């Protein structure tokens, strides 16, 4: 059985299109929060990179998932608390 891409899973969870995860600020913030809480083993490293790149428009070519999540958490906090935009 083929596992769906994590973007499909995030969109399904929010009952929206994948494009809404990037274009709609509410969906984007929720998708980032869901991704931060996701288990590291939910998908391979390259899929984590693709997903984060799609959601925030930034290449996350870091060495491992934990580094990606830490960087993503920092960006998410900045977004939520109004210090910067993605």
């Amino acid at each position: 059985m083929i596992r769906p891409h994590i973007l499909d899973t995030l969109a399904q969870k929010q009952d929206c299109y994948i494009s809404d995860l990037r274009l709609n600020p509410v969906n984007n913030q929720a998708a980032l929060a869901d991704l931060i809480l996701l288990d590291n083993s939910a998908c391979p490293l390259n899929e984590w990179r693709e997903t984060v790149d799609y959601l925030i428009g930034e290449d996350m070519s870091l060495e491992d998932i934990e580094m990606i999540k830490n960087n993503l958490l920092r960006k998410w906090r900045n977004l939520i608390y109004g210090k910067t935009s993605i």
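The helical segments are 6-14, 18-23, 25-37, 45-56, 65-80. The chain has a mean pLDDT of 88.
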